[in-house]
Amino acid sequence: MTQILLVADTEWVVNQTRSALAGPSNGLHELADPRQLLDTAVEVEPDITIVDMQIGSMGGMAIVRMFRGAVIAGEIQPGPIMLLLDREADEFLAKRAGADGWLIKPFTAKDLTAKVAALLPVSESA
């Protein structure tokens, strides 16, 4: 089962992601408070983490950097991290933060599913 961690506090983003990814082959774990990311990542051991660019007072770039720092420190397991961007111009920020992939909002379930599949290792998405 693929474990997916969603870090988002916007209702439509959570609902759209749930609609696209929740199911018998995926465990979808939703997190509205980015300050709980590291504890939740230790508990869930996500195969992929999806982060909304605009969440709380932290922001997606800071969350990705925090995640990457925790991986380097050996605090959490590595895995792809995807940012949900507000506009195309944010792609530069996603690259700079160290995101493995991104998707511009609004997105369709088909787009999200395809992007997640592309970021997961072959054994995870098969």
Radius of gyration equals 13 Å
For this entry, what is the oligomeric state of its chains?
A: single chain
E-strand count:
5
CATH topology: Rossmann fold
Overall 3D shape: globular
Total number of distinct structural domains: 1
Question: Taking strands numbered 1, 2, ... along the chain, how are they ordered across the largest sheet?
Answer: 2-1-3-4-5
- Return the structural class: alpha/beta
Termini separation comes to: 10 Å
Portion of residues in beta strands equals 15-25%
Number of helices: 6
Explain what the structure shows:
This protein has 126 residues and is an alpha/beta fold. It has a single domain, classed as Response regulator (Rossmann fold, 3-Layer(aba) Sandwich). Helices cover 43% and strands 21% of the residues. It contains 6 helices and 5 strands. The chain has helices at 11-21, 37-44, 60-72, 91-97, 109-119, 122-125, and strands at 2-7, 26-31, 48-52, 81-85, 101-104. A 5-stranded parallel β-sheet has the order 2-1-3-4-5, sandwiched between helices. Helix 1 (11-21) packs across helix 5 and helix 3 runs parallel beside helix 4 (91-97). The termini are close together. The mean pLDDT is 92.
